[in-house]
Design a protein that fits this description.
Length: 503
């Protein structure tokens, strides 16, 4: 069976109408073979505006449904995802090229955030605040915010929507999603899965609560500029964030930006090298280096460099690269030619900066439009040139260090600030790494890699990563508006700060 045929069958099982897959000009390809899967119709800017209007109407009704009841819809979404995990996971593998356990893992991440959000739907807690006035009560209340726009990237085509949607829905918001034009099929599948949950939930769910807008960049711009969209949660490159952020700021809309990462690990003298090796291998080569949390820079202490780096090189030379649908390879394809070209350009520049390259060449698999590469390990004399930038491909730059203070400075001396890790058994080093003058990233780990975060923590990073937080902890607060309420139940009207104003 061709991949295109399997895709059509999977989508039919998931509830996507056959007619939705053809007749348009948005060509969808599988990176696994490069073959065409569908040609989708794109929504016009005018119709996208209408969809936002309809989602705004949905918000006005949904915000009145009690939180725990809204949680019930997300519980049903979680159930539907459990029931369709195999099909959706497989579709992720087909559309993005992830290996099976990562395709399924992404759906698991969706299920996990649904569970989290269901609990949250009964815990959208406000505060009671001590007031300085007698006979008064002061409190803080959280209310639904409005329409939440989600712009997502190809590499986590479904999980990122669910982190936003599950929270936004329990918070009483509607959600309008513009998926990556590289991965619209998995988005249509999510829309169909969500429709099943809505159907089971019944009439309390308004229509148009979570529409998907298929289109290119212009449709993302409609979301960013439409005054009815209260918050835009955008995942993608720092370049994209530089355009989206100011446009949202101009109309005082909220932004949750999850942009580039240039994540580093530090391997200290006391590290468990077997453990570090495994963590580095998954962090740097997993998902073919196409996670925003991928390990891209590695600082190894001079005392363990010659023990670790040759072993790492061996792993790079021997890791299996190939078709994730038919083989048990650990590294699947890059998403497209642009990603391959970007990788080759970075490697060339690294060479010009004195880098010694292991790997990086194209691996032929009989399909001229599929881009498989051997992951590259580059030993760099110093942190310069392409090491300072995020290249969305499996390149790991390895550097030697001798002084802990200096390596902390180097660790933080890049634009991005998403994820980081340290491998050490020395308490002083690990605590310092997590302290105020340690890693400047939104995620800082000890003895695990930079990627593969659990949903329970707030996910996001600082500096050029954009500052937004999605998923767990109190990230939900971005999806609600806060009201401070002061109630006077006395018979007098004392003014705050002792002001008198007797008329
Ligand atoms: C991303 O690459 O945009 O921490 C998100 C991780 C995953 C999410 C990655 N849970 O690697």
């Amino acid at each position: 069976m061709t991949i295109a045929k399997e895709t059509a069958e999977l989508l039919a099982k998931l509830g996507v109408a056959k007619e939705a897959l053809s007749g348009g000009d948005l060509v969808v390809r599988s990176p696994v073979t490069g073959e065409q899967l569908a040609a989708l119709k794109q929504i016009s800017a005018a119709d996208a505006g209408k969809a936002i209007d309809a989602a705004h109407e949905a918000f006005k009704a949904w915000r009145l449904v009690p939180g725990p009841k809204r949680g019930e819809l997300v519980r049903l979404l979680g159930e539907e995802l459990r029931a369709h995990k195999a099909e959706l996971g497989r579709l992720v593998s087909i559309e993005v090229g992830k290996i099976p356990s990562e395709g399924l893992g992404e759906v698991q991440e969706m299920i996990d955030i649904c569970d989290f959000a269901v609990g949250l739907s009964r815990q959208l807690y406000g505060l009671t605040i001590a007031t300085e006035r007698p006979g008064h009560r002061m409190m803080e209340t959280w209310h639904p915010l409005g329409v939440v726009g989600v712009i997502s990237a190809f590499n986590f085509p479904v999980a990122v929507w669910s982190w936003n949607a599950a929270l936004a829905l329990v918070c009483g918001d509607s959600v309008v999603w513009k998926p990556s034009e590289k991965t619209p099929l998995t988005a249509l599948a999510c829309e169909a899965i969500f429709a099943r949950a809505v159907k089971r939930f019944g009439t309390d769910a308004p229509a148009n609560l979570a529409p998907v807008l298929i289109g290119e960049r212009g449709i993302g711009e409609v979301l960013v500029d439409n005054p009815k969209v209260a918050l835009v949660s955008a995942t993608g490159s720092t370049r994209m964030g530089r355009e989206v952020g100011p446009r949202l700021a101009k109309r005082f809309a909220r932004a949750v930006l999850e942009l580039g990462g240039n994540n580093a690990g530090i391997v200290c003298p006391s590290a468990d090298l077997d453990m570090a090796l495994r963590a580095i291998a998954f962090g740097a080569m997993g998902t073919a280096g196409q996670r925003c949390t991928t390990l891209r820079r590695l600082f190894v202490h001079e005392s363990v460099y010659d023990q670790l780096v040759p072993r790492l090189k061996k792993a790079y030379e021997s890791v299996s690269v190939g078709n994730p649908l038919e083989t048990s390879s650990l590294v699947g394809p890059l998403i497209d030619k642009m990603a391959f070209d970007g990788m080759q350009k970075a490697l060339k520049e690294a060479g010009e900066h004195g880098g010694k390259i292991t790997g990086g060449a194209r691996v032929e698999n009989g399909h001229k439009d599929a881009y498989y590469v051997r992951p590259a390990l580059v030993e760099m004399p110093k942190q310069a040139g392409p090491v300072l930038e995020e290249t969305f491909a499996p390149i790991l730059y390895v550097m030697k260090y001798s002084d802990f203070d200096q390596v902390l400075d180097l660790h933080n001396a890049v634009g991005a600030g998403l994820s980081s890790s340290i491998f050490t058994r020395d308490l002083q080093e690990s605590e310092r790494f997590l302290s105020a003058d340690g890693s400047d990233c939104g995620i800082a780990n000890v003895n695990i890699g930079t990627s593969g975060a659990e949903i329970g923590g707030a996910f996001g990073g600082e500096k050029e990563t954009g500052g937004g937080r999605e998923s767990g902890s109190d990230a939900w607060k971005a999806y609600m508006r806060r009201a401070t309420n002061t109630v006077n139940y006395s018979k007098a009207l004392p003014l705050a700060q002792g002001v008198s104003f007797d008329i």
